[in-house]
Design brief:
The protein is an alpha+beta fold. It folds into 2 domains: 94 residues, no CATH class; 183 residues, no CATH class. The chain has 7 helices and 9 strands. The strands form 2 sheets. The chain has a 6-stranded mixed β-sheet, with no helix packed on it. Helix 1 runs parallel beside helix 6 and helix 3 runs antiparallel to helix 6. The chain starts with a strand and ends in a 6-residue tail after the last helix. Keywords: Membrane, Transmembrane, Transmembrane helix. This is HupE/UreJ family protein. InterPro entries: Put_HupE_UreJ.
């Protein structure tokens, strides 16, 4: 994480906080050319950017993996937050009226990198048929998690994260049970299931934003961009699962009838086993030292 603070006279102080991994120690940050650097301890930045302040572009080299979160605070612009990823060598320092850069990609990464959210979307895709009913269930899931995410990110709803994560695991247990029983929920039942679980998952999504924060003056665009990224990730997951399910059905059709039932049960059993293990682990974490 990089924190930059500009005073009214154009003087800038900053601190760079990185994990101790050796490959991250090569990361270097360069202020715009008009900023005159001053001596500073390791991990600190000091400069005088004059009347122009922090304008132009921030240079970044050596970001080989992960992401660099940049918090920039200026008297006239409040807090600005950016998320930089490998391959990015510059970042605009001028305030932008649109969504803060990085939040759309952050939403996509969170749904694809969050195993519990990803498994829920995959399981819901296998459970709900036909495609139109599935689209409605995914919409209900998105609307529900967008609501609780917004409330939590804006500080209007606060719940302990550990019970939330445990309840998310329980939602996967219920989903695996429905898959194992071969239930085919009606449109209303699919919407209620997806909506109720979406409320929980939105609180889980809020944990990702809590580590980064929302930029002052652009919280709503950042939230919209993050939610749009989550939705794109969900659609990608659903498309991949539908394609794999079609291939699996084609393969099962070639097998003897007796062998099909155990193989059809594998997704539900795998999801259930993982969900039960997560539930036990997360419940036991209530009594574990922090």
């Amino acid at each position: 994480m990089l924190v930059l603070e500009q005073a009214a006279d154009g003087r800038v102080q900053g601190r760079l906080e990185l994990p101790p991994e050796p490959d991250l120690q090569a990361l270097r940050v360069e202020l715009p050319p008009h900023c005159r650097p001053s001596p500073a301890p390791p991990g600190r930045l000091r400069a005088n950017c004059g009347p122009d302040g922090l304008r132009g572009e921030l240079g970044v080299t050596g970001l080989a993996r992960g992401e660099l979160i940049v918090h920039l605070r200026r008297p006239e612009a409040g807090l600005q937050t950016m998320v930089l990823r490998p391959g990015q060598t510059t970042a605009p320092l001028d305030p932008s009226p649109g969504p803060p850069p990085g939040y759309l990609a952050l939403g996509v990464e969170h749904i694809l990198g969050g195993a519990d959210h990803l498994l829920f979307v995959a399981g819901l895709t296998l459970l709900v048929r036909p495609a139109l009913r599935l689209a409605g269930a995914l919409t209900a899931f998105t609307a529900a998690h967008s609501l609780t995410l917004a409330l939590a990110a804006l500080g209007l709803l606060a719940l302990p994260q550990a019970p939330v994560e445990a309840c998310i695991a329980v939602s996967l247990v219920l989903l695996a049970r429905a898959l194992a029983l071969g239930e085919k929920p009606s449109t209303g039942a699919a919407w209620r299931l997806a909506g109720a679980c979406g409320l929980l998952h939105g609180l889980g999504f809020a944990g990702a934003l809590a580590e980064i924060g929302l930029p002052q003056g652009a919280a709503v665009p950042a939230l919209l961009a993050f939610n749009a990224g989550v939705e794109l990730g969900q659609l990608l997951v659903a498309a991949v699962v539908l394609a794999l399910a079609a291939l699996a059905r084609a393969g099962l059709a070639r097998l003897p009838t007796r062998a099909r039932a155990p193989l059809r049960a594998l997704p539900a059993l795998a999801l259930g086993a993982v969900a039960v293990a997560w539930t036990i682990e997360r419940v036991l974490a209530f009594w574990s030292p922090a």
